Amino acid sequence: MAPSARHKASPSLREFDLIRTIHRRYSRQDRAVIRGIGDDAAVVIPPARQWHLLTTDLLAEGVHFDLRTSGFADIGFRAATANLSDIAAMGGTPLYLLIGLAIPNNGRELQVNQLYRGMMAACRPHKVRLIGGDVSASSAGWFISITLVGSVPPHRALFRRGARVGDGIYVTGTLGDSLAGLELLQSRSGSAGPPLPPRLRRWLVGRHLRPTAHIAIGRWLSTERLATSAIDLSDGLSGDLRHICEESRVGAEIDVAALPLSPACRAFAETGGSEPSALALAGGEDYELLFTTRPRHQARLEYEARQHGFRVTRIGTVRPARAGIRIKLPDGRRRPLPQTSYEHFRSTT
Amino acid sequence: MAPSARHKASPSLREFDLIRTIHRRYSRQDRAVIRGIGDDAAVVIPPARQWHLLTTDLLAEGVHFDLRTSGFADIGFRAATANLSDIAAMGGTPLYLLIGLAIPNNGRELQVNQLYRGMMAACRPHKVRLIGGDVSASSAGWFISITLVGSVPPHRALFRRGARVGDGIYVTGTLGDSLAGLELLQSRSGSAGPPLPPRLRRWLVGRHLRPTAHIAIGRWLSTERLATSAIDLSDGLSGDLRHICEESRVGAEIDVAALPLSPACRAFAETGGSEPSALALAGGEDYELLFTTRPRHQARLEYEARQHGFRVTRIGTVRPARAGIRIKLPDGRRRPLPQTSYEHFRSTT
Question: Among partner residues B40, B154, B239, which is closest to A55 by beta-carbon distance?
Fold first, then answer.
C-alpha cells in the first residue's frame, strides 16, 4: 500500500491529495476494518471460521478496456464486477477491495474519481469495503489492479474441478449480450440489416458496460451443495467450459438449441445477419455462472431456482474426457466446440 | 485472478502456458492453501484468531524501476521486498502473495521467469506462498502489481499513529545506502573524487538491488509492545517521518549527528564530495524501520535489540505538533526538515 506522496502522477494530480480524497469519500467505519487506507497495510478482523478467497486482476488500457467505447465509470464498474464475479464463481461472499492505479501524464482527477465511483457502485450492493490501494504515475496508459478478498464457509468453495460424467451443465441468465453490446459500441455507423430498436440497443450496451456479478446465486449453489463445479463466464462459454473440463478431466456436450438468449440478442443477431448462438458461444464478459450439477440434484436445483427468481438453464451434459468438448447442432449433428474464445481487446500496438 | 488464456501477451508468450509453468514451479503443498493458482480465486485457511494485514503496490516501468539499472530478478526482488517491508512495519507475519503482470509486446519468457525468481527469492526466507495472480499483455511497458497478505495477533499491529510527545525516534540498520547504490548504478562514468573500493561499491549496489525487509524486527517490536508507532523507510526519512507525524499529530526533532551511516555510505559521500547525512535524510528504499518508543521502554529496547543482534539507533525525539519537524545540526543549530522526499524514478516521458 504505502499511500505516500512519492510519485507525482502529473503536475495537477498529487498522489497524496488523491488518496486523501478517496479515503474521505469511501472509508466507512466498520468493526471488521481496524485500519483502511492510510497506513503501511490495511488491518482487518477476518470472519471467524471461514475460508478466505483472494483474487487479483491487472487491467491495461488498450488490452482490457478501450477509452473509445467506455467511460471511466463504466471501466471501473466492469473491472470491479470481473473480480466480484470470481468470488461469486467460488460460492463466496466478497468483503474487501484494494485498488492499484497507474495514471498517465495526461490523466485528470475527474477521471480518477469516475473510475473509483464506478468500482464502488459495483461493490456497494455487496457491502464490499475499500481498504487500501496504491496510486502512481504511468509512463504509458492507464493500468488498474484490483484485489478482492472474500470468504466462504469451510468445505463449501466451488472449484473448477469437480464436474463428473453425467452431470448437467447449467448457466445463469442469458449469453452473448455483452458481446452484442460491445459490437454495437464499436460500430457507430450502423449495420446492413434493419435498425435495432433503441430500447434493445440500450439494454445490450448496458449488459456490456454494467454487467452483474451473481453473488447471491453463487452463495446459494455453495450453501445448498447444488454444484459439483463452477466458473464465471469472463472468457466466453467456449473458453470457460474448457477450463472446467481440463480441471475436472472430463469432456462435455453442449446443446446449441438450449443456449439461453435474450430477445435483444436475438434481435441484434437478426440485424447483422449472424447466428445468435455464435454470439452465445464466443461472447465473453457476460459474467454469468457456468456450473455442473449431479443428476439427482437437478430437479431440486430447477425448482429452488424458480423459488428464488434465479434463471438457470441446462445447456448440456458432462461426458467422458475421451469424447472431447462437442456441441450438438439443432439438426442433431455433433461437432467439436470451436475454440473461439473471446479475446477482449487485443493489444493496440 | 482468472488465469485464463484470453490475452495473448505476445506471439511467443501465451498466458496460459506461463501460468502453468509458474504454477508448477512455485506452488507448494500446504495445509493452509486449499487452492492456489488455477481457479477463479485462491482459497486459504486463515490463521485462527489473528488480524489480517493486506497491502498492494502497482509498479510501473520508468517510474518505479528502470531496466537500464536493474535486471528483472532484481526488480522482482525489490518489488516483493517493498511489500514484505509494509508487513514488517505493521509488526506482522507475511503469508500469501498474489502477482499481476502486464507484459509488453517485446517481453520474453526468460524475463518473466527472472521477475518471478527474484520475487520468490525475497519471499522464501519468510515462507510466503504464491497463491495467485494475473498475466496479461501491456500496450506499453512492464507493470507489476503485488498484493501481500499477512497476519498479526489482535491488538498488536503497529500503526503510523500512536507516537506521543517525548517518545524516542529510532531506526533500524543504516540509512542512505540504497540511494548511494542507485547513484553508483546511474553514473557509470565514475566521479570526480577518489574511486570507491569495489567491495564498498558492490555492497552499496547490493543494498539498492537486494534490500532486506525487517520482518523479525517488526514482529519483535509488536510482540514486546516496544513501539508506539512504526513505518518502513520507502520514501526516505524526510517523507516517512512526516507520515508518522501527520498521523500521530505530533512534531519531531532529528539529531543529524545521530543518523546511522554505513562505512560504505560515508566513503561514497567522500568520493562525491556530498554530505552523507543528506543521503540518509533524502534517500529512499532503504526499507529500514522507523519507529517511536516510550521513554520508559528505551533501556529495555536497546538491551533486547543487542541480545537479538538487531541494530537500532535513536535518532531523535517526538515533539509537540506546533514545533513542526526539525533537524538539529551537528553545530547545535535547528532548522525545519527539508521536504526532500525521494521520488524514485520520475516518469520517463
Answer: B40
